[in-house]
TrEMBL record:
InterPro entries: Cyclase_SnoaL-like, NTF2-like_dom_sf, SnoaL-like. It comes from the Bacteria. It comes from Alkalihalophilus lindianensis. Residues 1-22 form the signal peptide. It holds the Pfam family SnoaL_2. Keywords: Signal. Residues 53-141, 178-275 form the SnoaL-like domain. Gene3D superfamilies: 3.10.450.50. PANTHER family: ESTER CYCLASE (PTHR38436:SF1), POLYKETIDE CYCLASE SNOAL-LIKE DOMAIN (PTHR38436). This is Nuclear transport factor 2 family protein.
Amino acid sequence: MNKSILSISLFLVLAMLLVACGSNNSSEITEKNSNQSQEVSEMTNKEKAVAVLESLESGEKKAVEDFISSEKYIQHNLDFENGREGLIGSLDYLKSVGTKVDVKRVIEDGDLVAVHSEYELNGPKAVFDIFRFENGKIVEHWDNIQETVTDTASGHSMLDGETEIKDVDKTAENKELVENFVKDVLMGQNPDKLTSYFDGDNYIQHNPYIADGLSGLGKALEEWAKQGITMQYDKVHLVVAEGNFVLTVSEGTLGGSHTSFYDLFRVESGKIAEHWDVLETIPPKDEWKNNNGKF
């Protein structure tokens, strides 16, 4: 075999080897991307919501880009601009101030996921986040944020207590019970029904200014009345429930200030057994960074 034929043969062999290697690498990359996409699609909405909140701590934007719609995202936190980019643009700042998110409870109701967490964000905060999903993507977000109080009237913290979701088969029943309680008692439509919603004085309270039991609630309201502090619920905007946990989102006033009320109730044997809340004063409209409103 002459040298020119041998050179051509070696060249062809090398070329075939390079093509084969390139094909294998391409297959590996395609398979890797396919596996990553499959992992994302298999995540539950609860997991996606928690992953987005963890981004506030890590500063990484991947979960935000993967799980929040780039086209439809409606933001109701009035300190953020509307759209996904408003959140992405805040991640570096949130990380720089040492933001931490400790998730306590997550409940899911249809396309809504509500997360109850303790934040470290310029001091400790009690927070509720609610995410609405469409086709596996977050398209809307609401929240309520309140500074935590450590010296509480009941001795319970604002976030401790029961976490286990039970009685999923009673979700609709518990949801109706709590919504009726808010309307009858908190909105004042049928206040005489107050005691029917509780098992005597057995009631665990996590509002930092109110002691346990209906007796604790009565004393707090009496003391507030003496100080001229009034609390009024005007409208229920959202109810999110899973099993024994029911979260209501309401609008009203506290001490004359326009207020957003997030109340989480735990139901046991058809009675309200435990309560957490986060209250936030709604700023005047000229201070809003988006026009979507708090609700």
